[in-house]
Amino acid sequence: MGNTTVALVTGANKGIGLETARQLAAQGITVYLGSRDLARGEAAAKTITGAVHTLQLDVTDTASIAAAVATIEAAEGKLDILVNNAGLGTFNKPTTTEDLAHWRWTFETNLFGLVETTQAFLPLLQKSDAGRIVHLTSILGSLTMATTPGSPIYGASGFAAAYGASKAAVNMYTVHLARELEPTGIKVNAAHPGWVKTELGGEGAMLEVSEGAETSVWLATLPADGPTGGYFHKQDRLPW
Fold this sequence. Notes:
Layout: E1 6-9, H1 15-26, E2 30-35, H2 38-45, E3 52-56, H3 62-76, E4 81-84, H4 100-125, E5 132-136, H5 143-146, H6 161-181, E6 187-191, H7 209-212, H8 214-220, E7 231-233, E8 236-237
Parallel strand pairs: 1-2, 1-4, 2-3, 4-5, 5-6, 6-7
Antiparallel strand pairs: 7-8
Helix pairs in contact: 3-4, 4-6
């Protein structure tokens, strides 16, 4: 315990989450790498230089979340940064054929898991002098862009309805949580990483993983005069 900045990144055994952990560790931050599969998380952690610890963390499992909270509380006594990176989705189902089971599967991780994880770690974040919460969202959660002809996602609005709706819900949760926590100094923001070359984004994506982590890292390390309750890509605000 001490003055070291402590961060937790969920879903961090690969892709944007792993790169976010890497970039935070490079800034001298103690990083807890959350991974549903502990062995994969431990292997990923070995690729990072810095103070990195692996946590078994499944954001859809209450007991797993509670154990992760207990581990960080015992070791650090606080949490300064929570990056809710864990997420999933598919983009190949027309809205008319996305069955209810698929909707529930999507929301269980992208929204309910994110909310439960945030609520569980909030007491530790409230012990920080500069708490920061980052929710990974998507441009597909923007109602404005989905309904604006000529926007990057207008033509794709008939697909990935469950994924987009889950991210729109994350955006709304971000606004409400930020407003409630604003008097405490804890900043809460939503990050759209961009179309990134990950398992989810595919090889045809425009951005490298290193670029995809930039928004999360920026929001995780905001100064006292930084924004809260916003929806960003890089440092640009996106329309809700």
